[in-house]
Amino acid sequence: MCVPCNYGIYVIKSQIKLNAANMKEEQYLLLCEKYFNGECSPGELSLIALYQKKHGLNNIIFEKQNQAEVREELFNRIQDSIVQNVPKRIWFHSSAFKLAASLAAALIVFFYLTNGPLKHEVKVKLAVAKVIKNKIDDVPPGSANAILTLADGKNIKLDDQQNGLLSQQKHVAISKSGMGIILTAKNIGANENDLTLNKITIPRAGKYNITLSDGTKIWLNSSSSLSFPTVFSGKERKVRLTGEAYFEVAKNKKMPFIIDVNGKQEVEVLGTHFNITAFEDDKDITTALIEGSVRVNAKTKQVLIKPGEMVVNNLQNNLSIRKADLDEIMAWKNDMFIFSNENIASVMKKISRWYDVEVSYKGDMTNINIDGNYSRSKGLKSLLKNIKLLDKVDFQIKERRITVIAK
């Protein structure tokens, strides 16, 4: 009996329990696609791991963070598999192998469909390859990606590292855990002279979180960085931020937490939850408060805000307090885009950071504003397709370059 699956093909419903020993390559690839879409059961995850171990694939879909690279590798494998299964009576000149994989596959399937024995196998493999190839052509969303720069200047690309200890410093152990790093203080008796500074840098199309030695948790958005000491001492806990971050500051009334924002303002807290947006190419710095209280200092002015409020610093010695749309402000942390009557240029700036794409414009964008909630976990084409439904703009996409066209 044939049943439809989510990959645009039909598979045979078998009474034989699937296991790594009898699983075919096309079945493995289908499970990989389910994994990418977050649809795998624990049993299917085990099957993938066992199949990869059996065939020496080194856990390629679990160890690599870049899904586009993994999809391309899987696509190449299935195309190679089709080529290797060509009947011996079919002869190819060596130059034929220089053709694009898609052309080779088209030629091969013609022979299979006319010769019969492996017709079904090739149909399945080509269908799976087509699904994977289509997704390679899309621009994938950002992922957990960051660079840790230690006090001694050593750079560690975090997405290349396994979970566990990254660095053992005098007072603190720095470890990776999932999508974040954790600083564990062993000796709180540090003095101000032996503090060491580290820096975590999040590139475009990246995100990461960090737990500092005092227990403060920080989530960092794309194009952001945080400089921090391994352990806090003295009268304050001070870090430096560029870009955007959400803070859950551990309470310590005796030691205020200070964020130096781009050297242009300071945010002072005792223990609270808040979000700061301070990208270098933005005109304003915004500080939005979720709970607790914060004081924002900029040059000669300072303001204190309550939960649900935000401070807008226009970088000209002017601080204004406004009501905050916390759902919109916190959307990035929750893997969402939420736009509320937001100008298309601002919308595309956020999209360009998350997908690492270049954006240009044709036409007047002044009065084109966008509303809507969109997932940040989808590919770029899906996102732009949904924005196009508003019938305000059109898009031209060429690799990682987007042209926004006013309607």
TrEMBL record:
Keyword Thylakoid tagged: no
What superkingdom heads the lineage?
Bacteria
**Annotated TM spans:** 96-113
Protein keywords? Membrane, Transmembrane, Transmembrane helix
Q: InterPro entries, per this entry?
A: FecR, FecR_C, Ferrdict_sens_TM
Q: Which residues form the signal peptide?
A: none
Respond yes or no to whether keyword Membrane is given for this record. yes
Among Gene3D superfamilies, the record links this protein to: 2.60.120.1440, 3.55.50.30
Domain Protein FecR C-terminal residue range list: 337-404
Pfam families the UniProt entry points to: FecR, FecR_C
Q: What is the recorded name of this protein?
A: Iron dicitrate transporter FecR
